[in-house]
Amino acid sequence: xxxxxxxxxxxxxxxxxxxxxxxxxxxxxxxxxxxxxxxxxxxxxxxxxxxxxxxxxxxxxxxxxxxxxxxxxxxxxxxxxxxxxxxxxxxxxxxxxxxxxxxxxxxxxxxxxxxxxxxxxxxxxxxxxxxxxxxxxxxxxxxxxxxxxxxxxxxxxxxxxxxxxxxxxxxxxxxxxxxxxxxxxxxxxxxxxxxxxxxxxxxxxxxxxxxxxxxxxxxxxxxxxxxxxxxxxxxxxxxxxxxxxxxxxxxxxxxxxxxxxxxxxxxxxxxxxxxxxxxxxxxxxxxxxxxxxxxxxxxxxxxxxxxxxxxxxxxxxxxxxxxxxxxxxxxxxxxxxxxxxxxxxx
Length: 346
Hints:
five-stranded mixed beta sheet; disordered N terminus; mainly beta
């Protein structure tokens, strides 16, 4: 299809049936108190850095770290053994200046962005398992302009979707040629005081996709807001906005707007998705109070891809990260200077 015609056809259709209610986002009919979790890994012998993100691939847990010699660890779920570590930070051969804000597992690829070089890297997970250092990595540059500043990516069909800072729109889309696609979209709450590119700097977000349903979800940090979008033909439809009660509160600091973390809730924190579910760790504390507890929470809220509430899990201890597959939820706990990964059945 002609690219110009495609751009003209692409639009965001807002779901007019999404009405705000006063029901709290953490009020669920089905609440499960989890008492038994299986411990599948502890770094007592490996001393891994802080885990910032986790994902599942073919019986392997992949963890992303900060302040560590390697950025990624691959752990066998069956045995609990550390199989491989990969991804050195640096500017030499087989090194990277940074590893972006998140990573994505798609098919057999581990995908991450190198923001300082404006590149997306595609790494074969089977090759990493064979050799941790010399791994062939495919890469592609992505556009980064004064009006288009992506920070977190996900992938849907041949499109790259991103949250970040954009002069126009709630999020950014790149086509199969990595060209910026132009269409209208907006935040689900008012932001009259903040204009253009600065909106994304203030209202930061996370994004994840569901290729089976051709949908993606965006959550807004320091709030109880998430949105579900459907990709169909030449349109992006916003099909759901969570009935929210807590938008990010803002203040001026040094002549610029920023989130007032004392007055904003931590809200929806870490997000994980499967083909059927969207799950969040959640805290009703202020963002400042939650940050003092390392953004850990005992509550996991699960929704389906229509935005309907499914289950709320209450854990016996606070967790800092999570991932999900069709059978289990995987969670990360820090205890006595140890990192422990557990799982429990859905």
